[in-house]
Amino acid sequence: MHLFFKYLLVVIVITCLQTKSYATKPYRSKLIAEVHKLHDQSQQGDKDATKLLVGKLEQLTQKDPKHHLMQAYLGSAYTLASRDAFPGPNKINLLKKGLKKMDQAVEAVPKDVFVRFIRAVNNYHLPTFINRRDNARADFEVLLETIRSKPKAYTADIRQAIHYYAGLSYKQLKREEDAKESWVEGVHILATSDLAKKMNAQLSKL
Asked: pLDDT tens across 36-69, in order?
């Protein structure tokens, strides 16, 4: 999952610095970078990073409940904490809390591409028995519709990242034609990018 957050971090920081509408929101590049680093370490299995991430994000969201990007990150962090927890009620409760937190963030700002993207990628990676794969697919369809309707509003990086993961989500659900369409369209955005190479690699496997 960390590949997605690498691209998300770059796009959010650039947006914060260049786009007035985002500059008015509580998104801070230094903060985003710190959260991203911890999330990346957590995703790679660092349990100490997971604990630090959850603690930091809980403090941030308590101070600023309307910081929906951090709320979405917190939801993702809870699911990572659930992964690390011993089997039992706490493990289940952390997972439920994480899913609820991400759902609340998306409900609060349904048009925020970054917030919805966090939930979509997180849900895509969850085990089958959690029953969130259809949710991930639905999120990616909303994201694809958004970037298709306003392509100039988003960088090539974020558009290709959406196409890449949307294709993976479709493939996961055995919808290979939809996956192919998403990847082919994504490659055409910028054929020389690393993500284009990854999409071409996936297309060669179909």
From this structure: 888 888 888 999 999 999 999 999 999 999 999 9
H helix runs in the chain, sequence order? 2-18, 20-23, 29-43, 47-63, 68-84, 89-108, 113-125, 133-149, 156-172, 176-189, 194-205
Q: Residue 52 burial (CB < 10 Å; 0-12/13-18/19+)?
A: middle
Token digits for 83? 């992964």
pLDDT tops 60 at residue 145 = yes
Q: Which of 165, 172, 169, 160 is nearest to 196 (CA)?
A: 160
pLDDT digits (tens, 9 = 90+) for 70-123: 999 999 999 999 999 999 999 999 999 999 999 999 999 999 998 999 999 999
Side chain identity, residue 67: H
What amino acid occupies position 117? F
Exposure string for 183-198, b = 16+ CB within 10 A, e = fewer: bebbbebeeebebbeb
